[in-house]
Write a structure and sequence with these properties.
Number of helices: 5
Structural class: alpha+beta
Strand order of the largest sheet: 2-10-9-5-6
């Protein structure tokens, strides 16, 4: 039981180590490490619940009705159990959606989603165990359904406040419909510049001098959201800038690029942020 939970969590921890050491991506490594801890803990809880649960009650033997018409049923037959509706599956879906959204965007949303997912899974586990005990206790008699857990109004208010506070604080994520800040023009091939805002670059083409090292200034205006710029040639990354969260500005020293080759640039955190490179003599 503990070994399986350790293996499942360990897979994510190994992936986190690979991202930290090989890919030099501490942001993704940290999120994978947190996911591994959560997955390992949830696996252990579920396996523990399964191993300690009572045996399920046996259904009574069905008797063939000998009359012409079946009588109208006023209640469920003895031993037949229809669990009452629970809000926990919906909460699990919401928590998972927020968590994966944060995995693609930033750590605060990821943390909130992980907390929501963990609370919902534990709540659903508690509901399942209570229903299991009710069935086992009833035997072949009528089953008294336990009332499913429901989050209190205070918990709902706290979650909504946290979510919308993050939403407002990271409002640049949803500014895709607005025109991006023009920022630096990027016209100087010896000192190109580019701006990340609203999870997109303000330029879809960089003009860079060929055959010599140049300094690229990248400005990240997305508060708390990591960006970088990588240069790719025929599917091979020839340069990968260090990721950094906004609001901040970094200078990258780009290697000399061959005028006879075709290069593109992209953000390694958000693949939708990409463009072409024009090399000039």
């Amino acid at each position: 039981m503990f070994g399986l939970a350790l293996v499942i969590g360990g897979i994510f921890e190994v992936a986190a180590l690979v991202f930290f050491v090989v890919a030099d991506d501490p942001h993704m490594a940290f999120m994978l490490a947190v996911t591994g801890l959560a997955m390992g803990l949830m696996t252990y809880i579920l396996l523990y619940a399964q191993s300690t649960a009572e045996s399920h009650a046996e259904l009574p033997a069905w008797k063939k009705f000998s009359g012409k018409h079946s009588p109208a049923a006023k209640s469920a037959p003895a031993g037949v159990h229809l669990p009452p509706p629970s809000i926990m599956p919906i909460a699990i879906c919401v928590g998972a959606a927020v968590m994966f959204f944060g995995l693609a965007v930033n750590l605060p949303f990821f943390t909130l989603g992980t907390v929501l997912l963990g609370m919902a899974m534990i709540g659903w586990l508690i509901d399942s165990r209570r229903e299991w005990k009710a069935v086992a206790t009833a035997g072949s008699g009528p089953i008294k359904n336990p009332t499913p857990l429901r989050p209190s109004r205070r918990i709902v208010d706290v979650v909504l406040i946290a979510f919308f506070s993050l939403l407002i604080g990271q409002s640049a994520i949803f500014a895709g419909g607005a025109k991006a800040d023009p920022g630096p023009t990027g016209a100087d091939p010896m000192a190109p510049a580019i701006t990340a805002s609203g999870v997109k670059f303000n330029l879809d083409k960089l003009i860079i001098k060929a055959g010599t090292e140049v300094t690229l200034m990248i400005t990240n205006k997305d508060s708390g959201i990591p960006h970088n710029l990588a240069i790719v040639e025929s599917g091979t990354t020839v340069f990968s800038g260090e990721q950094f969260a906004g609001v901040a500005t970094e200078d990258y020293t780009l290697p000399a690029l061959d005028a006879n080759k075709i290069y593109t640039f992209r953000c390694e955190v958000h693949p939708n942020m990409k463009g072409t490179i024009e090399l000039v003599p």
